[in-house]
Design brief:
single chain; disordered C terminus; mainly alpha; about 425 residues; about 0% strand
């Protein structure tokens, strides 16, 4: 009990985020290689793995949130990590399609137990005034944990591809047990019934989001863009690794193992995105913070289209990687610009509803678009990847169409609503 009482909530949160980020990177860095090499999944099965995960998260977000609202945020987080760990263990120990699908359900449901509960817990414990600084500091721990996890996954993967996943699963369960001992919860208050998330509220959120999208050109267009991006992304996110594995990797440091190269690719993509973002923020902040960033968003979307289509068509490893990184970097830069733009075009009363609507549109797109493109990928991987890029082609034009709408002041948009 004395150990439990002495655990500082902020330090617990930092350690929790570092450990979670490390263990997640340990499991995810090489899982695509494992799916193809050890489990023998075909392109359709690869996409169905992602679709199953999306569905599990989507369907269980509300029921698992009730645990955090009614009983305990701490309990919800602990349950979540046990389930995530069980999913990672099952995936690593049984290299079979059905077992991997079951693993997605386990860890997807586990993730919904932790989603939101951790932020609510630390905000309760340290207070709203201190929470912002704690979140910023926690993000730094996350980044450090991710980098160490990626490197560790590469080293362990050279020994055995499932080994990082198995160790990650065991580590998640150990993390849950550690949190059961160290995690304080002294300021939890049950959420009033009228404020709890329910399926009825989710339906009302969807309806409210549709109404906001109908009345406001910027919101309507961003919902459509999110849906289109979702239709494309599930297949590309799962199948790019399948194409990369068709290339012969050069020998470096005495090895040409995919485990080594996928580790290098993960680190390179992360560092490229970070470096480009920092450079733009340093030398062209006015573009990143533009009130109506239709031009830069259209340009970045065009880069993403070129990156995905180029990756699909190019037969040289390094050119294909350059195209893939172009897509990754452009998407990383565009996300905060678009998020800030969306927030400027909605008032505070409907902000959460609209953001939720945009996220729901992306999730629906992934669930609807993934399986058909995965089916195409069974007969032609290039055709599936090319289709992913073609689906994205309307997005630059949709951004440019908003130039006139963007000139309408936010206050006038609000009055029209």
């Amino acid at each position: 009990m004395s150990v439990y009482r002495s655990a500082d909530p902020a330090r617990t949160f930092y350690g929790y985020n570092a450990a979670w980020s490390f263990l997640a990177a340990l499991s995810f860095t090489l899982n695509a290689v494992y799916y193809v090499r050890d489990a023998g999944l075909n392109p359709l099965q690869m996409v169905l793995v992602g679709t199953t995960l999306e569905l599990a998260c989507f369907l269980f977000e509300i029921p698992t949130g009730i645990v955090a609202d009614l009983y305990s945020r701490r309990l919800s987080i602990i349950i979540g990590f046990v389930l995530i760990g069980a999913g990672f263990l099952l995936q690593g120990l049984v290299p079979a399609f059905l077992a991997i699908l079951a693993a997605q359900v386990l860890w997807g449901v586990g993730f919904t137990f932790t989603s939101g509960a951790d932020q609510a817990w630390i905000t309760d414990e340290v207070g709203t005034e201190r929470a912002a600084a704690v979140f910023v500091r926690a993000q730094q721990f996350e980044l450090g944990g991710k980098i160490v996890g990626i490197i560790s996954a590469g080293a362990l993967g050279l020994i055995s591809l499932p080994l990082p996943m198995v160790l990650s699963g065991a580590g998640m369960i150990l993390l849950a047990l550690t949190l059961a001992v160290l995690m304080r919860e002294e300021n939890f208050h049950r959420t009033p019934k009228q404020e709890r998330e329910t399926f009825k509220q989710m339906a009302e959120t969807f309806k409210s989001g549709l109404e906001a999208a109908r009345r406001r050109p910027v919101v309507r267009t961003l919902v459509i863009i999110s849906l289109i991006a979702g239709l494309s992304s599930e297949a590309f996110d799962r199948l790019w690794s399948v194409k990369i594995l068709t290339f012969t990797f050069p020998t470096v440091f005495g090895t040409s193992e995919p485990a080594f190269w996928f580790t290098v690719l993960a680190l390179a993509g992360t560092l490229l995105s970070l470096g480009t973002s920092l450079a733009l923020n340093r030398f062209s902040p006015e573009r990143l913070q533009a009130t109506h960033p239709t031009g830069i968003l259209a340009t970045l979307a065009l880069f993403q289209v070129a990156g995905v289509i180029g990756f699909a068509l190019l037969g040289n490893l390094w050119l294909a990687l350059a195209a893939m990184w172009l897509n990754t970097v452009a998407g990383t830069i565009a996300y905060p610009i678009e998020s800030a733009w969306l927030n400027r075009h909605v008032d505070s009363r409907s902000r959460a509803t609209v953001i939720s609507m945009v996220s729901q549109a992306n999730a629906i797109g992934q669930v609807v678009g993934g399986p058909p493109l995965g089916a195409v990928g069974r007969s032609s991987l290039r055709a599936a990847l090319l289709a992913s890029g073609v689906i994205l082609t309307p997005i630059p034009a949709l951004y440019l169409r908003l130039k006139d709408a963007s000139r309408i002041p936010v206050e006038e948009v609000s009055r029209r609503s």
